[in-house]
Amino acid sequence: MTAIKTYPNQMTDTHLLVNDFDYVQPVTIEDAMALKNQHGDALRARFLAGGTHLLTMLKIERDNPGMIIDINHIAGLNGMSRTAQNELRIGPLTKIRAIFLDAFVRFNYPALAQACGSFGSTQIQEMATIGGNVCNASPASDTVPALMVYNAQVILQGLAGERRLRLQDFLLGPGRSDLFKDELLVAIILPPPDHAAASAFYKISRVSADLAKANLAVYLVRQDNIIRECRIAFGSVAPTVMRIGAAEQFLHGKEFSDELLVEAGKLVSQAISPIDDYRSSAWYRRQLAGVMVQDAFRDLWQKYPLQDQVGPTLDHYEAPSPSPDGASPRYISKGVRQKIEITVNGVKRQMWVTSKELLLNVLRERLQLTGTKYGCGLGECSACTVEVDGKPMLSCLLLAASVNGKSITTIEGLQKSSGELDALQEAFIEQAAFQCGYCTPGLIMTIKGLLSENPAPQEEDIRDYLKGNRCRCTGYMSIVRAVFSAVEHSQSHP
Ligand SMILES: Cc1cc2nc3c(=O)[nH]c(=O)nc-3n(C[C@H](O)[C@H](O)[C@H](O)COP(=O)(O)OP(=O)(O)OC[C@H]3O[C@@H](n4cnc5c(N)ncnc54)[C@H](O)[C@@H]3O)c2cc1C
Ligand code: FES
Ligand code: FES
Asked: Where in the chain is the domain with CATH 1.10.150.120?
């Protein structure tokens, strides 16, 4: 097999961040609050968590902050633990994928795990945080309906101290929350699990990686034929995610029947105030919501009697918050370059980057690693997928400064020193799975992530994991075959 050559050439300009900003990496909550308080108005300072929403807003010029405060280096904000009262405490920087994969959450708060699993693409799940999802205050948020049916509370820390609010009181409208200028969301609290309750999350969207036309979380306690308790939270059907109190009160204490559900569906349709947008019409959303709630109750009703089994324990899980080392850019002023150190395909590199340079810019234009493709630039196509510390992420939505100290693998890094291709690349050739060449590197890097998370995936696992990798030529059958072929190869060459 001949080695792949790369040629310096005239490339697409991937510098989509138009406006400049200062970039700061505080390492304490106190510093983050003080920076936000000082620069919140004058510089329109913004906190950066996973960046999947914020950087998109910057790229489409809907937001223009003069300062970005990257909170990823503050210790203690990433991970989950149980409090002395047996509540679940979720750190705001906990990634959506980590919540989806957590056995304790799946068993005790299934609607939340399902909401995280149905969220965007796998890459978005690996990058996006639950705190960012809540603070976004999007009416289409997937985690918020699930959090709401568990009666979640948020803990906000500001210069004046800490506040604890019910999640539904925190969310005020589309993009609006009750967060003061200097405040940071520091935890989401879920009450102790109730093992007499069944709960689930449902989402209807155009394609599986899209935002919801409507989403719904339901919580139900059944006693014989009676609805002893129920909670209903809908997203994408009103200016903010909402609990449907009228339907909850109507169902409470009543005997379960199809007629009862039809009436509850009517109450839901009356309570919501959906809009027409490019995802759906208001009319359709209203009909849909009325039907979704009926189906959800039938589904949960069938789950009884609930299995009386001991669930997995949650070991105090506190993911490491990387503290910047001496080489880290604690502060990059706009227009000024700062040194970062990254490992790219096994080679340590020192680069001087500006605050608004993206990982994609560095890889393609500076390192000539043009295997990483630039498609939409907005997180929608996954052509720019690379591995960051072993996880598939979108290089078009990562600031270069924020990956300081991390290890990046691009498609070029899969080639062995002997010049041989990786077994997955060989499988793509063998199964004719590579097609336009634009999507293939992103697909291969994503599948690398799949196989390290799940070395023996089923077809549905493969299709779900790749849901955000848009291939317009519909070559998915051969791509699925290539994954099976690579798995077979790895099992016969352990
Ligand atoms: C392609 C694509 C697909 C998407 N699909 C979905 C989907 O299916 N479902 C869904 O719900 N969302 C989806 N989103 C929206 C977005 O990914 C989520 O809202 C995500 O959870 C935001 O988290 P983040 O960590 O990336 O937030 P960021 O973009 O870093 O921040 C979002 C906002 O919250 C603020 N913020 C973040 N953390 C804190 C904190 N701790 N305290 C105070 N303020 C804070 C930031 O300042 C910013 O204003 C999608 C986005 C894209 C680009
Ligand atoms: S270019 Fe990054 S997701 Fe499309
Ligand atoms: S592989 Fe690119 S469109 Fe299908």
From this structure: 421-492
CA gyration radius, the chain: 23
CATH 3.10.20.30: which residues of the chain?
22-73+321-412
Query: What's the CA gap between 446 and 248, in Å, rounded?
Result: 42
The closest ligand to the CA of 52 turns out to be 1
79-302: CATH class: alpha beta
CB 246 less than 6 A from any atom of ligand 2: no
* Full-model pTM: 0.95
Give, using CA atoms, the residue closest to atom 43 of ligand 1. Answer: 184
Domain 421-492 belongs to what topology? DNA polymerase; domain 1 (1.10.150)
* 329, 338 contact by CB (below 8 A): yes
User: How far, in Å, from the CA of 386 to the mean position of ligand 1?
Assistant: 20
SS3 label, residue 469? coil
Give CA–CA dist 8/200, Å, rounded.
52
Q: How far is the CA of 443 from the centre of ligand 3 (A)?
A: 9
Q: Verify cis geometry, omega within 30 degrees of 0, for the bond prior to 305.
A: yes
Q: In the CATH hierarchy, which fold is given to the domain comprising 22-73+321-412?
A: Ubiquitin-like (UB roll) (3.10.20)
Q: Residue-wise pLDDT tens for the chain (494 aa)?
A: 555 555 555 566 676 788 899 999 999 999 999 999 999 998 999 999 999 999 999 999 899 999 999 999 999 999 999 999 999 999 999 999 999 999 999 999 999 999 999 999 999 999 999 999 999 999 999 999 999 999 999 999 999 999 999 999 999 999 999 999 999 999 999 999 999 999 999 999 998 889 999 999 999 999 999 999 999 999 999 999 999 999 999 999 999 999 999 999 999 999 999 999 989 999 999 999 999 999 999 999 999 988 767 788 886 666 655 555 544 558 999 989 999 999 999 999 999 999 999 999 999 999 999 999 999 999 999 999 999 999 999 999 999 999 999 999 999 999 988 989 999 999 999 999 988 888 999 999 999 999 999 999 999 999 999 999 988 777 789 999 999 999 999 888 86
User: Which residue intervals of the chain bear CATH 3.30.465.10?
Assistant: 79-302
Structure tokens of 354? 């500006």
